């Protein structure tokens, strides 16, 4: 695995990012990795590295670049109290609309790499990143073949930039992995989101894991190793089927 630290110029400034490539040096399809609210930290880097070692060129942008320097945070410490006190100011600097606004810069960077295979790319997002991945794919639908959301929240709200509003534009296939008893994605919201996808003719699959919101993250207090491994197997199979390697 090769790891590069880069900076991508976006309409709002300079976005630090991490780029991971497969260990065999042969490159692969590109995947944009949308972080959770905990920001860039060792666990996020480790997950992006694992995805790269499965055969993908993985771009992990720092979605908090508009805020400036921070952390890294230890989620187990952050979640001992009201996480919004610590993370709220950072979360306020980003969102679905801003993720969509940044996507052209990310794609331009990936297009400039000789080790990226194919023009259509994938995205995976966790927690707040799930909605961002979907929104970005709706902004440039012709470029995305596959988008996965793990314990993504607020996927269908009344907000102008709610991810479900991108359904009519999507060309990507979606995999939606929800958590049980997730206040950020209750059953009625899931129904609204899936109806939007169905009405728009989007190919998707959704399933609810017997785990808590955030279960995929190895540094979260709610990390569930068995459910996380199931999630990884589903994600890798999804990308293997949808992202061309030629």
UniProtKB/TrEMBL annotation:
Pfam families: DLH (PF01738). Gene3D superfamilies: alpha/beta hydrolase. Residues 17-242 form the Dienelactone hydrolase domain. InterPro entries: AB_hydrolase_fold, Dienelactn_hydro, Dienelactone_hydrolase-like. GO terms for molecular function: hydrolase activity. This is Carboxymethylenebutenolidase. It comes from Phytopseudomonas argentinensis.
